[in-house]
Amino acid sequence: MKVNKTDLQDALEKVKPGLAQKELIEQATSFSFLGDRVVTYNDEISISHPVKGLDITGAVKAQALYDFLNKIKKDEIDIEWEENQIIIQAGRARAGLVFEHEVRLPVEEVGKIGKWKKLPAGVIEALRFCYPVCSKDLSRPVLTCVHVGKRAVRASDSYQIAKYELQDPLPINDFLIPASSVRELVKYDIVKVAEGEGWFHFKTEDDTIFSSRVFDGEFPKIDKLFEFDGMEISFPKTSLQALDKARIFSKGDFHAEHLSVVDVEVANNKIKFSANNESGWFEETVRTRYKEKSIVFSIGVEFLMAMLKQSPTGLFEEDRIKFTGEKWQYLIAIATGDSIAER
Residue 125: how many CA atoms within 13 Å on its side-chain side? Predict the structure, then answer.
C-alpha cells in the first residue's frame, strides 16, 4: 500500500493532542487506524482525521511511528502489515513497528454524532479569550469549564470573570467544555459543531473531527456583576513594554503561556508591575493619573497584554476592576480575597 508521507504526517499531527501522556487506558498512547481514518483518545478528548490511500485497522505506538516518519525524506512510503507488525519502507530504509490488529480504545464512548451545524463566527476566538480565566480547582468542576451559551461565552475561577459576546446565536444547546479541552480546540479552524451524548463534536474544513466531553452542570449567573459605574484608570503605552519584560520572570502555570502571572499595584499616580520565578524577579513602575486608595491584583501577563492592546482603560469600583472591549468584558477582584462570582 503506497501512502503519501506528508499526508500521513499531517494527519498524525492533527490527532496528536488526543494522545494520553500515560497509558492509563489501553492504547491511549497509540495511533489507532480505523479504515481510512487515524484516531486518538485520552478519555477527555478524541480526535480523528482521514488519510488518503490508507485502509487498515489496528493500533501502533505513537512515539515510534511519529519519530520514524520525521526521519524519512521520501515523499512516498510503502506500508504493509503481517501478523503483529506493520512494515514501513522508504527507499532502502525499512522498519517494523509492533501492530495490534484489534483497536481496544473505547472510542464507542464518544457515541453518535448529531447533525452538523455551522459554528457561528467568533466562537473559537471567544473560547480563546475566556479559557485562561477558568479555575483549576477540581472540587468545583463547573468553574474548570468554559460556558458556551446562546449569545455569549463565559468563564470564571470565582475571582475573575471573562465574557465574550457572540455576533450570531449558537445553533445548538448551551454546553460546558473543560478548559483543558479548549486549550487544544482553539488550535483548529473549526467550521461546524454537533451535539452528542455527554460529548460535543467540532469539525474543520478538511474533516478533522475533535470530540470533547462536556460537563453537566449550571454555570453561575455572572452578568449582573459587570453592571457598575466607577473610576477610570488609564494604563499608558509603557505598560506593554513593562509587561513584556515581566513575562520573562512570571510564574508558569496550568495554561503555560496564558497564565504566567504578573502582580499589579496602582497607587499614588503610579502602576507597578512585578513578577518572580525560580530564575529571579522583576518590577517596573509607570506613571498614571490615579490618587485614590491602593489597588492590588494578580493576572495572567499575556492575558493583560492582550486586553490593554484593545482597551487601555479599566473601570474601578471598591473591590473590582473591569476592562471592556468591543465584544468582551473582563472583571477581577481587588485585594479583598472575596469571591466575586458568588455574590
Answer: 11
